[in-house]
Amino acid sequence: PPERKRFYQNVSISQGEGGFEINLDHRKLKTPQAKLFTVPSEALAIAVATEWDSQKDTIKFYTMHLTTLCNTALDNPTQRNKMQLIRAAVKFLETDTVCYRVEEPAALAELQKNEWDPVVAWAEKRYNVAIGSSTSILGPNIPASTKETFVSHLASYNMWALQGIEYVITQLKSLILSMGLIDRHITVEKAVLLSRLEEEYQIQRWGNVEWAHDYDLCELRARAAAGTLFVHLCSESSTVKHKLLQD
Question: What's the rounded Cα separation, in Å, for the pair 238 and 177?
Answer without folding.
Answer: 25
